[in-house]
Amino acid sequence: MVAGKTREERWSLAGVTALVTGGSKGIGYVTCHEFNFFYLVYVHIVIKVYVYVVCDIMRLGVGDFRHAIVEELAEFGARVHTCSRNAAELEACRQRWEEKGLQVTVSVCDVSVPADRESLMATVKANFGGKLDILVNNAGQSLFKLAAESTSDDYTRIMATNLESCFHLSQLAHPLLLASGIGGSVVHISSIAGFIGLPALAIYSMTKGAMNQLTRSLATEWAHDGIRVNCIAPGGVKTDISSDKTIDPELVKKEMARVPMGRIAEPEEVASMVAFLCMPAASYMTGQVICIDGGRTIT
């Protein structure tokens, strides 16, 4: 609550603890680099072009988006723990954050594996003295594949990574959030794909739509515990598209024409909303799914 707090206290995360999953890579990076170009020749030309545009626009450069979230929270004074499947990339990130003087610890975790999720939360509990103030369910994986071509393995993998991990980690974090004593905050990272229809994103979109509803359900259940649960649904987030030689700039322009603001987001524009939702200044906000998309979902 903000009652009795100074302006500085309302807009600060000094001393709080946070877990941000998937802190070493950006949304869609792995999937888009693994996306098989030759698969596209079997797709209708309109869908082919559109999927290719979405794939590149939604892709983030290595770590930009998730680095931004970790760094934003840490720069506001939070002690942050983050995780990734790739130990080498994670260590490189840790060194970078250490050089910046940020309080960030790391551990290896594949959030699609239940045992890894339990081990992660045990590490967080030990690191933060049995308490946790903020959980950001940020890890996720995309799948650009037509519904008719998707397999049961595709479905299982994406559901486990995007949705099951979000639900299970929230469950595991609940007692630690309760123990924080200051009112915990959970933020899920969804996508505008959970609101609008996009070709070749059926399974991915299902996980994000379900995540949006999970946000509302948990917010309703946990409000009496003093735990707020909100969600952010980004559209395209900017990285190195201008230097990517594999995409036609004209295709980017066509997609951008559907965005009223005429551009895609900077990583910091998403990270700053995450930080706000975790601050005392947002203490009366819960159950909200906020689109950060330059108006894409209203056109």
UniProtKB/TrEMBL annotation:
Q: Where are the transmembrane segments?
A: 176-204
Does the keyword field hold Signal?
no
* Gene Ontology molecular-function annotations: oxidoreductase activity
Record Pfam families: adh_short_C2
Can you tell which superkingdom this protein's organism belongs to? Eukaryota
Tell me which InterPro entries the record gives.
NAD(P)-bd_dom_sf, Sc_DH/Rdtase_CS, SDR_fam, TR
SUPFAM superfamilies (alphabetical): NAD(P)-binding Rossmann-fold domains
Q: Does the keyword Oxidoreductase apply?
A: yes
Keywords, comma-separated and alphabetical:
Membrane, NADP, Oxidoreductase, Transmembrane, Transmembrane helix
* Record protein name field: Uncharacterized protein
Instruction: Give the source species.
Output: Urochloa decumbens
